Amino acid sequence: MTRRQNEQVKQTPQQVEPTSAAPSTGEKNLEGADVVLRVENLQKQYPIKKGFFAKAAQVVHALEGVSFELRRGETFAIVGESGCGKSTTGKCILRLTEPTSGKVYVGDQEFTSLRGKMLTQARQKLKLIFQDPYSSLNPRMTVADIIAEPIDIAGVCKTRQEREARIEEVMQAVNLDLSYKYRYPHEFSGGQRQRIGIARAIALLPEIIVCDEPVSALDVSVQAKVINLLKDLQAKLGLSYIFISHDLSVVKHISDTVMVMYLGHEMELASKMALFDKPLHPYTQALLDVIPRIAHERIADKRILQGDVPSPTNPPAGCVFSTRCGQCMAICKEKIPELVEVEPGHMCACHLYDKNLTEAQRKLSLHESLLAQRAHDAQLRSAAADEKTAYGEKTAYAALCSTKHVAPCRAQVTTACSTLQAQEA
């Protein structure tokens, strides 16, 4: 390589540097940070057709009026159950799926209206890290070719030396040995493959990366390394993440702001500390109750959601969570709640925080909810008692059979069961 070529490589703008230590887990100060992405009233509907020539008979309501902002250097987490619209939100933002309506702004530019070359150029600012590290990499391409693919499409490297230098910089940034350049994906573990996917995503130094459950397919020990790597890269490159996940423990570790979704609707939107310390929406409260905790942190009375998630083709009238909510009121089944600011920076879509709702109505709702919860708890206790009795009878039956070598009568089983329960007590 000539001296002039060496100088060209050194002058490559915004070179990626390798990192090692994970940043602190404290909250970042995002006040005054630029808004790099703005989503306004995003909607997506999938028509269901009975045949090729038939008209759409039904519609899947995947997204209904999703709106939020993403700031520079922020990690915006989207959480919820499977099928709530998390991944669809990410795909609509990237325009991998065209939204039915709504707008997406990247900086001051309306991303949803771009076409052709302007869309290709704007897409250099947004990248995606896929969920599955096994199927998202081309098995016939080497690591170098996978990382260089977006570089070649964008045409940012003018010479072969610049291209090779950029590949090596990116590999070092994600802690991949340079000897892996000409190996194929099948030669790597899941964690290493995901690092290759991350390297491909940051190759063009984007502003925004959509992380679609990037660690859900990995072992717990590998998850921590990948999460720390993402935080390192964010601190070095000023990246903004949209982090899609159903694992609230991971979200608590990496996120700055959290949006809770249910059946395509926003339920709650708040900072990480506000949402985990004081959840407002009944659905968020139920989600947080099921997070595994160590013994001294376990919650005595967990909120257990009853029933199944309604069909997105036929969502319930009013609040979509009304069929499973323990605090459901009459208005919940009639009117869709608006996402309002209950506390500074803490948004919630629930009629419990409706200013037009009287205090008497709130108390009545809470009283009815308490009665319903007590009835549900009584059913659970009764079922547990029946199960314990059945188990005791089986144990007593086996014991009598082993001693008498004959099938005992019902009275003998009941007596033996009572004796065993008395001994256990």
The portion of residues assigned to helices is 25-40%
CATH level 4 superfamily of the largest domain: P-loop containing nucleotide triphosphate hydrolases
Shape: globular
CATH topology of the largest domain: Rossmann fold
Strand order of the largest sheet: 6-7-8-3-9-10-12-11
**Number of DSSP strand runs:** 12
Protein structure class: alpha/beta
DSSP summary: helix tally: 12
Q: Please state roughly what percent of the residues sit in beta strands, choosing from under 5%, 5-15%, 15-25%, 25-35%, 35-45% or over 45%.
A: 15-25%
Please name the CATH architecture of the largest domain: 3-Layer(aba) Sandwich
Secondary-structure element series: HEEEHEEHEHHHEHEHEEHHEEHH
Domain ABC transporter: 37-288
Keywords: ATP-binding, Nucleotide-binding, Transport
Pfam families: ABC_tran, oligo_HPY
Protein name: Putative oligopeptide ABC transporter, ATP-binding protein AppF
Structural description of this entry:
- The protein has 425 residues and is α/β, with parallel strands linked by helices.
- It has two domains: 275 residues, 3-Layer(aba) Sandwich (Rossmann fold), CATH 3.40.50; 55 residues.
- Helix content is 38%, strand content 18%.
- The strands form two sheets. Strands 6-7-8-3-9-10-12-11 form an eight-stranded mixed beta sheet, sandwiched between helices.
- Helix 4 packs parallel to helix 6 and helix 11 packs across helix 12.
